[in-house]
Amino acid sequence: MFEAAELGQKITKAQYEAELPKLRAALLKAHFALKDTKVPVIVIVSGTDGAGKGEVVHRFNEWLDPRGVDTHAFWQTSDEERERPRYWRFWRALPARGRVGILFGSWYTEPIIRRVYGEIKNSKLDTEMDRIASFEKMLADDGAVFVKLWFHLSKKAQRRQLKDLESNPKTHWRVLPTDWKHFKLFDKFTEVSERAIRRTDTGQAPWHLVEAADRRYRELTAGKILLQAIEDRLQQLARNQPTASTSPSVPAIKSAPAPRPRVHASTTILDHVDLTQHLSDKEYAAQMEKYQSRLSRLTWAAWEKKVASVALFEGWDAAGKGSAIRRVTAAVDPRLYRIIPIAAPTDEERARQYLWRFWRHLPRAGMTTIFDRSWYGRVLVERVEGFAREDEWQRAFLEINEFEEQLAESGIVVSKFWLHIGKDEQLRRFKEREEITFKRYKITDEDWRNRKQWDAYKAAINDMVAHTSTVSAPWTVVAGNDKKFARVQILKTFCKHLEAAL
Amino acid sequence: MFEAAELGQKITKAQYEAELPKLRAALLKAHFALKDTKVPVIVIVSGTDGAGKGEVVHRFNEWLDPRGVDTHAFWQTSDEERERPRYWRFWRALPARGRVGILFGSWYTEPIIRRVYGEIKNSKLDTEMDRIASFEKMLADDGAVFVKLWFHLSKKAQRRQLKDLESNPKTHWRVLPTDWKHFKLFDKFTEVSERAIRRTDTGQAPWHLVEAADRRYRELTAGKILLQAIEDRLQQLARNQPTASTSPSVPAIKSAPAPRPRVHASTTILDHVDLTQHLSDKEYAAQMEKYQSRLSRLTWAAWEKKVASVALFEGWDAAGKGSAIRRVTAAVDPRLYRIIPIAAPTDEERARQYLWRFWRHLPRAGMTTIFDRSWYGRVLVERVEGFAREDEWQRAFLEINEFEEQLAESGIVVSKFWLHIGKDEQLRRFKEREEITFKRYKITDEDWRNRKQWDAYKAAINDMVAHTSTVSAPWTVVAGNDKKFARVQILKTFCKHLEAAL
Fold first, then answer.
1. Which helix (H) or strand (E) covers residue B309, if one does?
2. What residues of chain B, 263 to 302, have a C-beta less than 8 Å from chain A?
3. Which tens digits make up the pLDDT trace of B167-203?
4. Which of A279, B102, B413, B434 could disulfide-link A284, Cβ–Cβ 3.0 to 4.6 Å?
5. Of the candidates B225, B336, B320, B487, the residue with the CA atom closest to the CA atom of residue A72
6. Helix (H, G, I), strand (E, B) or coil at B146
7. Min CA distance, A46 vs chain B (Å)?
């Protein structure tokens, strides 16, 4: 594969100077047009050591309007990063819509290096690359343009480059101790890189191999690739084509389960919930004491073992989410949990993929995050109210499964509660709320409007539970007509999940 | 002082149950009214160990609308926090306007504990308390309501409380090992706390001592204090009074320098800049090479010694800020710096005090942050265009001095550049920009509008430099008519500052 990037391509100084002003003017023009779009551009700069990657990053910063560029170098990890799922640091770095994000190092670096050093096997490398392919697909589906650049040097050129840098007093600081170490592994590095590139070279996020021996050639070529990618998207937007059509050649991705068929059923999962279940006051008091004190012990034990957990609450309006959450938090030391209520997104959140706002709130090791409403809004309210297009919410099932898979994989205990009540019970509670002073704030016109959509929500909930209840992140549908029963069921389930993990 | 909180106050169950519903209804009502205001409420929960602070936090979360509350416990510090100035973690936790932030532990905790353990002396404690007083004053001036609660237990009550908690199997986990350790230092703790409270008990941010032995009394009292504070502000807003009038009794704060007199002068600092200074191409090439390679070495050395730096650039339109910044960054490894361009704030940023958006971008140890425009917008564009009221931008000089003092204190090297050019030279550059294709994006109608305000800006710049040039964060006014001279002056100055710190 890399033979194509060992052809000895060069650009003369005269040619470079003739082409550069045109390229820069065109890049700036495209970059400005990009600002008015909802398109983030993700530029990945990777390749052989000594191939001038850092200089290319400098050039991009020089050629583009600096106000529209974010450069992130992935290098050392902080403990805040280490204590969260691995991709948290990449989510933090994703560019907002209309901006160019330059990633110096990326999600590719660690798996490739670890494979080169023999810390992981090919099978693990493949799994990682499949994860990357679906991660990139998700971002591309959301509108991102990918520019993945791989700067290649032949073995001979790499040795010469490192020696040149080293012998020049002005540049010797550019050679890091790890560079020579990597050089000794050149053949292995080439083999692993090739495997990684092949597996992640998709229609929506294609790789570009750039021959890196000649500075002028590699910089001009990189600039042109970036320009082309932005211009292509701008033209597409002008023609008003949906972005999905850019991906005719997405290869089958092994790790991603095939999309499940849509669920068509007249009776739904909700119809099977026994809403007559209830507890007496005495049973309730005894059970609450038992499970609250158990939860208290378990959350401290989780803290000691550095096991984090996420509990999310969804449910019908007036199903008792708020009071159920309070019964949970009453048992947990305030130092150990945070509640994240999900309402309208901020503009910083709106400017990114819809899962970004949840990533930023993931718990550190040993902690619990409670989401009062969650990412499932995408397949509930956004679906029913038409805020998300059908292809968007359909896609969300898979995206959410993968998100939760990553949580589970990093050791986070995931509990998901749907608080179910009957339609009559909801009516009774709405009326009650209107009558009690300090409950009146809880009932709005929106609640009444949502109630009219009961059947549409019922179908959406059914699809949601069918598509996103997984072994590592199962749904618990809570029988909520009796609040006491519901609260105990939630506490008990949360305890069970924590116990299983500890 | 604490005698007033050792009176044996109690509330009977009947009384509690009679008062609670009224209190809760009133609290909710006030909390809802708060949402429509621009007022953040900062609740500090502190006091003796075993005084039930955690339970009060629970109660507040229960009584208020959880969607409008943020609870933060300050406990362990992350390395991301340790590597930044001490207050960074508190800035991260400040509530947005219209919200209630409950701080369990706060900026008071560490200084008090360190004094109790004898790690610092009284003089250092006082300095810390003065810093807190000015920090709180700044937030109060910005509109924040403070509710600072100190829960006090007598020595006898504390011992009884700890023993009770410990002997009850349901609550023994609430007693931390440090609690008994602190108990042995009870008298010292009381003495230090009293000193700290006296020094930070101000009109805008008063302390409330709450007798904590009786659960019902302390919770009801805390709730009433919170309610009163919010209601007072709401009434004030309804009467349309400026918030400053709430602080008749702010004590003189030692550490804060007395506000300097406004500068009235017909010739300004800018008139003394020799704009004829210039460099030949040959000198320029030699100097650039010298200082760029020096800067490269210095930034790596700073990385090794974990010395962070902040460089900010302000200047007339077309003075060459962008190109000067590129000459600096060209010499620095991309892993070591980030550029933060300052444009309009996001809504997350707008919802907080104006310095918050700069705190979030402070560099980690060993890194450099370059601000392209900065917090000085407050005393430049916001002053000249009238976006900030006179009392706001006047106050900003002191606020900025204190902000930069904290940067310097934490070891951050601060460099501030004003790029100065003559009025004729600006006109020449504006015209040039209109003529060159890839420079055309740089010139907007706003630039021409700003130019008409030249004299107003000149007065503002003069005030700014006079009020905010300090030993630890001096201004460098750069002679910018000759771009070559300006770039070298900037590189040289930046190197000089780094060298002094290493």
1. strand B309-315
2. 289, 293, 296-297, 300
3. 887 677 667 777 788 788 888 998 899 889 988 988 8
4. A279
5. B336
6. strand
7. 14
A186 in a domain, yes or no?
A: yes
> Residue A401: which H helix or E strand, with range?
helix A390-409
On whether residue B177 sits in a domain, the answer given is yes
Q: pLDDT tens-digit profile of B439-462?
A: 777 788 889 999 999 999 999 998
SS3 per residue for A319-357: CCHHHHHHHHHCCCCCCCEEEEECCCCCHHHHCCCCCHH
pLDDT surpassing 80 at residue A297: yes
Q: Which amino acid is at B119?
A: E
Over residues B56-89, the pLDDT tens digits come to: 998 998 899 878 888 888 877 888 788 788 888 8
At A353-385, the pLDDT tens digits run 888 889 888 888 889 999 999 999 999 999 999
Write out the residue range of the structural domain in which residue B15 sits. 2-246
Q: Where are the alpha helices (DSSP H) in B64-154?
A: 79-82, 88-93, 109-116, 122-141
Nearest C-alpha in B relative to A326: B62
User: Given an 8 Å threshold on Cβ–Cβ distance, is B329 in contact with A79?
Assistant: no
Give Rg (Cα) of chain B.
27
Q: How many domains does chain B have?
A: 2
User: What pLDDT digit, counting tens, does each position of B29-59 carry?
Assistant: 999 999 989 899 999 999 988 888 988 998 9
We report the CATH number of the domain holding residue A41 as: 3.40.50.300
- Angstrom distance (rounded) from CA A88 to CA A179: 27
Percent of chain A with pLDDT over 70: 93
- Specify whether B232 is located in the same domain as B273: no
A478 membership: H or E segment, kind and range:
strand A475-479
- Does residue A87 share a domain with residue A158? yes
